[in-house]
Amino acid sequence: MRADAVFLGGEAVSQRAVGRFLAGIFDRIVTVNAHLHRIANTQTVFPWIEADDLSAAPAIADTMCAAGYDRDMIIVGPDEESFPLVIDLARRLDLDFVVARKSRHGDKAVDIGCRTGACFPDVRFSWLMTSSHQEPF
After folding, report:
1. What is the pLDDT of residues 84-104, one digit of tens each?
2. Domain range annotation of the chain
3. pTM of the predicted structure, to 2 decimals
4. In this structure, are residues 37 and 56 in contact, taking their beta carbons and an 8 Å threshold?
C-alpha cells in the first residue's frame, strides 16, 4: 500500500491500480496491520469489495507472554502509522511506549525523530513485526 504518492517524475501511483486488480480477483481482502499511508483504511484502497484490516497485537502479546519478556522493554513505533498497533500492544503488556515522527523528503530520504525527545533505537517494533528471525524477547 506504499505506492500512494509520486516522489520522482515517472513513478506510478499504483495503490489504486493494484487495489482494482485484486478486487477483480477476490471477493474480500483481509490484511493484518496494513501499513496505511495517507489513507484512512483498507476500504479506501478496495472500495469495490469487502476489506478488513486486523490487528496482530493480540497474537503478539500472547506469544510474548507465553515466551516471557523483559518487563522493562519499551515498545517503539517507527512512525505515526504504527501508533495504533504500538499502543495496543503496550497496553496489553503493560509496557511503556514511544512513537517516532517520520518526515519523508523522497522515496529514500527520510528523517526520524521522537516526539517525546527520547528515542530507543535498540527496541524497534517494526523489526519485531518484519523479522523472520526467532529472537528472544
Report:
1. 899 999 999 999 888 888 777
2. 15-54, 57-130
3. 0.68
4. no
